[in-house]
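Changelog note: in this version the structure field was regenerated for every chain. One regenerated record is shown below for reference.
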Amino acid sequence: MKNDPAIRSNGPDRQRAIYLPGVSGQRPLLPTNAQHLETLARTRMSAKAFGYVAGSAGRESTADRNVAAFESWRIRPRMLRDVSQRDPGIRLFGRSLPGPFLLAPIGVLDLAAANGDLAVARAAARMGVPMIFSNQASAPMEDCAAVMGDSPRWFQLYWSKSNDLVASLVGRAEACGCEAIVVTLDTTLLGWRPRDLDLAFLPFLQGRGIAQYVSDPVFQRLMDEPAPETQPSPPRRLNWQTLRSVAALMRRYPGSIWQNLRSGRPLKAVRTFINTYSRPSLSWEDLPFLRQQTSLPILLKGILYPDDARRAIDAGVDGLLVSNHGGRQLDGAIASVEALPSIVEAVAGQAPILLDSGIRSGADAFKALALGAKAVCIGRPYVYGLAIAGQAGVEELLSNFFAEFDLTMGLAGCRNVEEIDHSTLWQAG
């Protein structure tokens, strides 16, 4: 699928595309205000689905701080500069991109919309924005790649307990045209997430978000190996909810429902996933193994500490993604944008730095670039667009981000991203 520059218009064009139909009473598909967007999405999703997407760790102070910390930096616009022509494009790992945006890896997108991964993949391709395929997707990476044509995509890797599975996932990513591997480091244990806990909801136990696994030949082999001894599970009540959950699991697993009931493989897949999913023992000594598996650029996601950034560069990593997982893992953690300046200083230009967690507007993206990020990853907002209007909602969300970034850049006196630097910001307080 070729991207369509017509829907990725600049700020003034996007404003006209909204205001002119307004004369006839037509409103845009999505609210342009981030909080209103979330509120509307909540009405389109089940309580469990919305809780999983919107929820964060503990008191959710990290998620709140991610957003609020951007207010610590204020833009200092320059005047009387000719900004009639503006170029928001960047180059990243040899690829020219229309703007400094990527779609962050978010799992279980079918909680927001049926076939959500494919809808997002199509939207990303049409907008020319790289999509980072989630390791916890509801559709195999090959299916998403097939609808994207030659548009850019990356793969997020959760390092499981099986190195054979890691190697297989990375090999598949390379084979289906992914251009980078993003290793998520901050989920070797699952964070304490009250919204999910209070609803007793973990989608993976229903077979959701494990499509990358059940489509993998190594994972299928692991399913046939003896399971490690674990703590006995508490007895389950057999009721209609249990039966509905089992039926849904049978439908999601490849094959017919009756075949899956007879084989028992869907239940075995969930157990195998739980036993292999995370690897608390992951350490710096494991990184050379990944480098042996691929020639693609490797980025580490979750770096917030300068010494870790320096060590990553010394280890030959190709890029960093400054992230606290949107606040979903560790309550009370430093905001991603608060960590960014020290990471930029530590890396000293030796590798590109991206940022996610808390990006809610084009102005946020501008501030992140001024602080040294090469690009930013949009997370929850595109899921809310997906929940509200499917593929069209994701496209409109991205159009709004492009438009606001373009206007922010011009109103700040910058004609291109190279002119966005620390001098364009003032630190409040």
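Spot check on this record: The chain has two domains: 5-199+285-427, 203-225+240-276. The chain has a mean pLDDT of 94.
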